[in-house]
Amino acid sequence: MNIKELLGKKIRYLRQKKCISQSELAGMIGISQRSLSGIEIGKNFLTSQTLENILDCFHISVTELFDFEHFKEDKSMASELVDIITNLNDTDKLRTIYKVVKSIVKD
Question: What percentage of residues in the chain have a pLDDT greater than 90?
Answer without folding.
Answer: 60
